[in-house]
Amino acid sequence: MTGFLLRRLGGAVFVLLALSVVVYLVFYAAPGNVAQIVCGERCSPAQVAQVHDRLQLGDPIYVQYWHFLQGLFAGRDFSSGVGVVHCDAPCLGLSYRQDSPVTDILVNKLPVTGSLVIGAFVLWILLGVGTGLLSAWKRGGAIERTLTGLTLIGFSTPVFVIGLVLIIVFCSTLGWLPFPQYTPFSDNPEQWFWGLLLPWISLALIESAKYARLVRSSMLETLAEDHVRTFRAYGLTERAIVGKHALRGAVAPVIALSALDAGSMFGGAVLTESLFGIQGIGKLLVDSVRQVDLPVVVGVVMTTGFFVVLANAVADALYAMADRRVVLQ
Amino acid sequence: MRQMSGNVARAAAIAVVLAVGAVACGPDDSGAKNAGGSSDGKPQKGGTLSVLNNEPQTDFDPARLYTSGGGNVPSLVFRTLTTRNREAGAEGTKVVPDLATDTGKPNADATVWTYTLKDGLKYEDGSPITTADIKYGIERSFAAELSGGAPYLRDWLVGGDKYEGPYKDGGKGLASIETPDAKTIVFHLNKPEGEFPYLATQTQFAPVPKAKDTGTKYESHPVSSGPYKVVKNENDGEHLVLERNPNWSEATDAERKAYPDSIDVRSGLDASVINQRLSASQGPDSAAVTTDTNLGPAELAKVGGDKALAGRVGTGHFGYTNYIAFNPKVKPFDDPKVRQAIAYAVDRSSAVNAVGGSSLAEPATTFLPNQKAFGYTEFDHFPAGASGNAAKAKELLKEAGHADGLTVTLTHSNAKGGPKGPEVATALQDALKKAGITVKLQGLEANDYNETIQSVSKEPGFFLRGWGADWPSGGPFLAPIFDGRQIVKDGANFNTGLLDDPSVNKEVDEINKLTDLAAAAPRWGALDKKIGEQAVVVPLFHPVYKRLVGKDIKNVVISDWTGVLDISQVAVK
Amino acid sequence: MSEALLASQAGAAQVAAPASGARQFWRRLRAQRAVTVAAVVFALLVFVALAAPLLTALEGQDPNAFHPALVDSAAGGVPKGSFGGISGDHWLGVEPQTGRDLFARLVYGARVSLGVAFIATLVQVFIGVSLGLLAALGGRWADQVISRFTDVVVALPLLVIGLGLIAIVPDSVPRPVLITAVIAVVGWSGTSKIVRSSALSLKSLDYVSAARLSGWGRLAVARRELLPALAAPVITYGVLLVPANVSIEAALSFLGVGIKPPTPSWGQMLTDANTWYQSAPTYLLLPAGFLFVTVLSLTVVGEGVRTALDPRAASRLKVGVKSRKDAKSRKEASK
C-alpha cells in the first residue's frame, strides 16, 4: 500500500509539472500580444513596452518557467505600484488581468465548482444506477424505457441545449424553480440547493447513460455467475437476488467510474458553468484563455490535473478494495 | 474611440455586448420615453436595484476604466469634472458640469483649460474633495500597473507621452496639470482641443486621495465621490454591491437621481438567461435591468407577440458603425475600382439580418453614426440599394480588368454572433458571389484577429471592423481612423486604410480648434462625406440596442450618448 | 481513467478466449431484431451523408445560399410561414436570420459531423490500441511513461488542446482535418487503457504463455493472439466513441474553435439554434433529433456487437429470461 501511494504521488508530481510545461508551450506558440491585451487596445507602443517589462514577458520562455517553478516552491513578490504583493508558496503567480495571486482566485472558485460537482454526482448516481437496475431487472417495462430514453437523450444532446430548455420550462414558463444562481452554502443552504438544482439535473442527464449501461452489464454478468444460480436453486426471490447480490457486484465499478468523472468535471463543466452563470473553475478557464492570462490558465489546468490524478488513485484503490482479484500497481 | 473587441468592451463601463441591434426609427425617436412598463406614479427613493450583466465590471479603478461619458455603474461611484447630460435622446449627447461649476473655460486657442470645483464636495468618509486629488487621479492613469484607459490624456497633455505615472516620478507629478488652489485645476495641452470638456467626463477625471491609494488593489474598494459606495467587490467585479454614500450631497449633483438605496450588480450570466429572467420578472428580478445585454434575434420574435413585454423594451442608439475595411497596400484593393465594386455589391439587408435584423441594426452608408451630435451628413457614394447592385459592381470590375471575376480573402473574427464574426462574413460572401467575386473566408480567433488587423505589417487587405464613440462627436470617430498622423507603425494601429491625406489632416486640426461644438459638428460631417469618396471603408450598419427591464422599473432614461438606460435615473419604487 | 474499470465497462473482463468464428458472430448479431433495425437506420444516415449533393439537387437548394426574403427581418429574422417556413421548395423550412435551406444544411452537416466523428474514432482506436499494447508488452518503463502521458492528456482541457493545435497548425490545413485531429487527441486514452489492462490479463493466460514459450516474438504474439481477443472490447467501446465525438465537435463549435463557416455541421447548427427554441423550434429540433437518432442507433448496434462477440452473453441472456419464468412459477406454486 505504501509503495502504491508513493508511486502515485511521484506520478502526480510528474503529471502536474508536465501539464504546466504543455500550457507554457501552447501559450508561447499561440497568437495574441499579451502586453497589448493587458494594457488595452489604445495603449501606445511605449506603454505596451512598460507593461511587457512589468510582466517580465521579455524573458525567454525557460526563464519565465523557471520563475514559475521558484514561485511554486519558494513564493514570489510582485509590485502593486505603491507597495508589494506577497505571494506565498505554492505561488502560481499573479493573474495578468486581475493582479491578484492565482491561488486566491482558485480558492474562491473551488467551492463553487465543488458544489456543482457534488450535487450532480449524487443525482447521476441515483438516475444512472436506478435506470441500470430497472433495465437489468425488469427489461422492457414502460418506466425502464422512459428512463433509458431520457438518459440517451441526455447523452446525445449538448448541455447548452438541455440546460436552456430546462431553464425555459421550469423557471420561465412554469415558474417552479428560481433561475439558477450560485449562493454559498454557508450563506443560505436552501438558496444554494434551489439555485444549483437545474445545473445538477443537466449534468446528471448527460452522465447517467454511462452508469445505466455499466450497472446493467455488470448485473447481467453477476446474474449469470454460478453462485447466483445456487441462490436461485435455494429459492431466493428474484428481488432479493438483484437487490443484495447482483447489486453488490455493480457497486465497485460505479464508485470507481464516478470518482473519475467527478475528478475530471472540476475543469470539464465549462459549458454548464457558462450557461448557468455559475462562476466556477471551468468558466475561469474559458475567460482566462480568452484573455491570454497564462498564470491563471496554468493554475486551472494544474488544479484540474490534480483532481484527475487524485480521482484516478482513489478509483483504483476503491476498485481493488471491492474486488480482491485486482492488484494495485 | 474604442472598438468593441472583448477586452476593451470589458474595460468599457458601458460595456456594449457584441450582439447588435438596429431599428427603423430615427435617432430623434429613441425609445426612451415609451419604455418602463409601470410608469404610473412618481419614482420614489428606496429599494434594491439588480443589474444582471454578461460581462463582469472588471478593474473597478477610475484609472483603468475605459468609458464613454464616465460609464454607467462607475458613474454611480466616481464623479468627474464634467459628465454627460442625463436626458433622453439627443439632449443626452450634451456635456454638463459635474464636480466643476461649468464645462471648462478655454483660453483663446483652446490649449489651456481651467476648472473650478463646486462647494461642499465630499468623499464617502466625509473628507473634502480637492483638485490635487483630481490631478493625482489623472497621474495614476499613466502608471503601467493601472493601464487600460483612453489614450487622449497621453496624447493631449504637454509631456503626457513621456510621463510614467506617480509611482515612478519621484514626487514631481505632471507639470502640465496645475492646481493653484484646492478649488482650481488648469490643464495645458500641446495643441488646440475644443472637445476637452467631453474628455473630462471619463473616470480618469475622478478624484483619488493619495493617502488612500493602494495601487492595483484600489479597485476592490475605491473611495467614492458619488451617490453610492462599494461595499462588496467579489472576484474582480463578478458581483458588486453598492450602497448609499451618506456624504454625497444631492445639492451638488444635478445629474444623478439615485433613487434605489442599494444596487446589486451580478455578472457572468449567459445572455439568453438574462433575457429570460428579465421577461419572467420573478421576485427580485422585477426590479432588475441589464446594461450590457441586448435582446437576441430569437427573443425579439417572441417579444413582438407580447404587448406587455414589448412595453418593457427600451430602445437606444449608441454611436457605433460596423464596416468593411480595406488595406490599399494589398492587391487588388490598391485599385479604387475594386473597392468601389465591392461597395456596390454589398447586401446590407442580409448583413443586418446576420446581426439580428432590422430591429437590431440600421443599414449605414456613412461612416459617422446617424446622429446630429456627430455631425451626420447624409450621403451614399456607391448606392447598393437594400440588397446590392451586382450589375454596377460587375461593370466596375470589368473596367478594372477583372472581367472574368475575382477571388479575394475576407478576414473576420471567429467570435460567434458578433458584428465582425462569421455570420456577417458569410452574408457578404453570398452577396459578392452575385457580382462574380469569389470570397474566401479567413476566420481568426479573437485575440489573433485584433493583433493581425491592428498591425501595419500583418494587416490583411479586406476585413470586418467596427468603431464606436468615446463621446458623441466626429473627432474621436474620424481622427483615429483617417488622420495620417495617427498611423501607428510599431503598435496597435486603427488607421487601417493607411490614409495620409494632407488635406484631411489639416481639416482635423482646423476643427479641433473650435470650442463651439455646434459649429464643429457639420464640419465633421462634411469631412466624412469627403473621405467616403475614396472607398477605403464600406459602412455596413449602425447597431440599435433593445433591452428589457423588470416590471417594477421606473424612470427609464436612454440617451443617445450611451444608448442604454442610465442607472443613476432608475427607480424601483 | 482506471483501466480495470473501463475494461469491465466495455466487457473486457470476459475476454477469456479469442472470438469464435465470424460466421457465428454474424448469426448472433442478426438474431437480435433491434440491432437489425438500428443498423438499417444508421445505414440510412450514412447514405444521406454520402448522397448529400444528390439529395439537395433533388430538392433544388444550395446549403449556403441566402434567402433574405424568407425571413422576417424586423422580428429578428424568424422564418416566415408556419413550422419554420416549410414549403415545397424548402422541405424542412429555412434557417432564421439567413433563410438558408435547412434540409440542405442538415444533409451536408451529416457529412461533416459523421465524417469527423468516424475518422476521429478510427484514429483514436489506432492510437489507443498501439499505445495500449506497447504499455502492456513493452516492459515496466514503457508502461510507466505511457500511463503518465495518458494522465496528462486526460487532464488537459479540450479548449487548451484545441487552441494549441489551431495555433500551431498552419491555416492551410482544412478545418475538418484539424477538428478531427483535436478530437482524436482528446479521446484515445480510454481505448488505450482498456487495451492495456485486457492485454495484461491475457498475457497471463495459458495459451498466450504457451505461444510465448514456444518462441514467438512479442509482435507475433500481439498480432496473432492478442489482437483478435481484443476486438470485442475495442469495438464495443469504439461504437460509443462515435456519438461522444459528435458532441465534442458541437462543444468545439460552441467554444469558437469548430468547423469554419459557411460549412454546416450538426454541432454548429445546434449551437446557433439553442436560443431559437421558442420562436423557431424546428431549427433546434431537427439537428437535435438527427443527433439523437444517430446516438440511439449506434448504441443499440454497439450493444448488439458486444453481445455477439461475448461468448457468454447469449447464455446469460437466456438465463435471465428463464429465471424470470422460474420465479413466476415458483411464486404461483407458493400461493
UniProtKB/TrEMBL annotation, chain A:
Major subcellular location class: membrane
InterPro entries: BPD_transp_1_N, MetI-like, MetI-like_sf
Secretion signal span: none
Residue ranges annotated for the ABC transmembrane type-1 domain, each copy included: 110-319
Mode of membrane association: Multi-pass membrane protein
Subcellular location: Cell membrane
Entry's transmembrane regions: 12-30, 116-137, 149-179, 191-209, 254-276, 296-319
Keywords: Cell membrane, Membrane, Transmembrane, Transmembrane helix, Transport
Family per similarity comment: Belongs to the binding-protein-dependent transport system permease family.
Protein name per its UniProtKB record: ABC transporter permease
Top-level taxonomy: Bacteria, Bacillati, Actinomycetota, Actinomycetes, Kitasatosporales
